[in-house]
## 1
Amino acid sequence: MNSTIGRATQRDDWWRTAVIYQVYPRSFADADGDGIGDLPGITHRLPALAELGVDAIWLSPFFTSPQADAGYDVADYCDVDPLFGTLADFDRMLATAHELGLRVIIDLVPNHSSSAHAWFQAALASAPGSPERARYIFRDGKGAAGELPPNNWESVFGGRAWTRVVEADGTPGQWYLHLFDTSQPDFDWSNEEVREYFRGVLRFWLDRGADGFRVDVAHGLAKAEGLPDYVPPADAGSMGGDEANVPYWAQEGVHEIYRDWHEVLAAYGPDRILAGEAWVEPLTKLAKWVRPDEMHQTFNFRYLETPWDAAALRSVVDDSLAAFGSVGAPSTWVLSNHDVIRHATRLGLTPPPPQGQGLGPKSESHPDEVVGLRRARAATAFMLALPGSSYLYQGEELGLPEVIDLPDSARQDPSFFRTGGETYGRDGCRVPLPWEAAAPGTGFGPSAASWLPQPESWGDYARDAQAGVPGSTLELYRSLLALRRERGLGEGELEWLPSEGAAVLAFRNGGVTVVANTGSAPVPLPAGRVLAASGPVAQDRIPGDTTVWLAAD
Ligand code: NOJ
């Protein structure tokens, strides 16, 4: 066991039931006033997370990076970008988290590096066929003079997935693969040197005391032999997710990599974990990522994408528990993260936009903010009663909506630029957090600076404006998290109960009966003592878009 952990999460298998809160460092809390959040800012605000009642935090990347994709373009995997602080700041943050009983997992980005990484720079300076080029995926182009890309793959962020380099003698040369931005060249994971390098990266952070890793693009590392052409179906999500054999997603070859990493982590004890960001369907296939000798958890994006609808929820919960249960893994649950429209907005949108498009002033989808927040609170109350592990994304405990009217000049997501503005991208869910309603910049930092502009309404959502206020979203999250812990819901088992009509879902977990009304008409409130409710419950009725927890005893 990691000997520095405090009270809450001392069990080796803490991750089976943990509520893990995603900190997006650049938008969480800014200590130095430059408008970009940092590690000292996180350390300063950690007590608020311990008090919220989460078990662990996951930090998005804070490593040395040109920030072309907000840090998912890593130039040095074993150092902290000066924007976020220093390694000593990381150590202080980790020690403080552990003292507070919070586990800390960090982001590992193994599919690609930044083009500023020393290895990629060496590859550019070296000849085709050199060992330096063999760490990435360089190929000769097609066409008489190699002027066409090696295949037809497209970047997740739009445009082609290949960029041609200029060789040292000034002539147009080979092409390199980047499934994301041009500045994010893909590693070649069939190269043992790459594998050994990442074992070193894992050990570097495990030695410092990190409790594990969220693994970025965990379905992308292995590419199909020969890099065959592929045209995604028109309805495929940008990060994959369909069942077809996509030559760059969910290839069998990824699994031996995770078995290898499992061993690396196991040498540090059973409480260090790998959590995969794998957009893979169906869930029975995704379960391969969490076989006993691979990762510990994987994100459940099918759950995130499920509409607020009783039948759809029941089926995703059943499928998840069955699929993950079949390999002895816990299911995870998630509603928001830094890549998707915040669920307080998403659940009130008509029509729902395709995943990955984001939301902006000219989008066809329009939110009803009141309905969105009501459903979001009900959806969270439903999720936090499920057995397994849940992920929360910073700001959802404040009920933050997606920021839709960001000016184009403020946007930073590479997908916005690579699609000529057609995809708004993910900036709208990344706006810095409001902490104190009356402070400049709502208390995000000591100055009013904020790398994305905060909307006028931000003060209304500020943490201090909600703390202690009955019925506020913050107090709802606190009470749900406290009850979940007290009643052992993460460890529990789900038993569906008969329910009042097609829009209602009811289940029992441990001593708690959970009733979710996903429709708009009120339904009768079953007998029992109300422990928590996502909205006002009166006269023995559960209003529409509301979830109630009742004591079954
Ligand atoms: C998934 C991350 O969550 C996203 O933010 C990033 O842009 C891509 N992977 C590429 O690293």
## 2
Amino acid sequence: MIPLDRISCYLVELPLVRPFETSFGREQVRRALLVRVSGGGEEGWGECVASSGPWYSYETVDTALLVIRDFLVPLLSRARPSHPNQVRRAFAPVRGHPMAKAALEAAVWDLYCRLTGVPLAAELGGVRDEVPAGVSVGIQPDLDSLLARVEEFVAQGYRRVKLKIKPGWDLEVVAEVRERFPDLPLWVDANCAYRLEELAVLAELDRMGLGLIEQPLWHEDLVGHARLASRLSTPICLDESITSPQRAWEALEIGACRVINLKQGRVGGIQAALEIQELASSRGVPLWCGGMLETGIGRALNLALASLPGFQLPHDISATDRYFREDIAEPAFELSPRGTIPLPRGPGLGVEVLPERLRRYQVAHWEFSI
Ligand code: NPQ
Ligand code: MG
């Protein structure tokens, strides 16, 4: 049995170095829920990827806290798992709320790995000690600002750039970036902002040498994505639509996407992500790891996942300074001269939460006994 003594949640607010804007909104601060599980003289950390409002998905920091407190902590307490891969089954009675489940499950994985002295990447079967880093560039006030941002990231050595698009911030913008950076691996992400009726715009994007088009249509619209995919030669990659291994299977089965952006938080945790990894590998579907403006805790977890076989494309895992001036955990992640982020080597996530930083950025704190 994994020793589980106490569960704590911390709500932190980390200022972003620059506002981050997508088709669904603009954030200046990363409001994040952190989960700590203590037991056997160690502690494990998990980060909930939900944000302050129900825009990217229906979950928020507050719904996640409620579900963790009232339902997941009691389920975990009764399950008494001997390995973190049993946590997913313990949480199965709760419908939905994948981000809440993932946060608590992640803390148990970290605790387990620290108690056994094994890096999380090794426990999961990672095959790399560094992963290729891409960068996601938000919607900017004007084209010149966008070109300046892209220039800066290219100069830093990121291996590919993903532009956030929406109706009215698409064709001209992408054409301009493509013209200025003809050889740059370039992707776009619409965060659900188009309808199938806007096929004309998407067909234009199809001619711009993009590596993929991420989540062009409504998150529930798998069939629409399959129809669109048959009209485009650029691969469609799904993000918001893939909320579970079941949904991943359905999407691949009907040809709604050829690539999957895998975010463990969005699909219900590490164990669910491993199921999708197996499914994708068996079908030769390339995976890459998406990002949710994670602190060092979530970023370290993403690195461990991205080190697995099947993760073949550059990730939305950037250096810490892409988002934050100062993080709650150390060490900060830096971009190597090869355009990669090296994995930390220590047990578990391989990062340490600094109590003084946690105090500085926390806005609320809860303790649950188990
Ligand atoms: C995506 N992220 O791939 C997401 C979406 C996203 C790095 O492009 C606050 C918290 C704001 C999480 C904005 C990237 C967010 C967020 C966008 C996630 O679609
Ligand atoms: Mg996305």
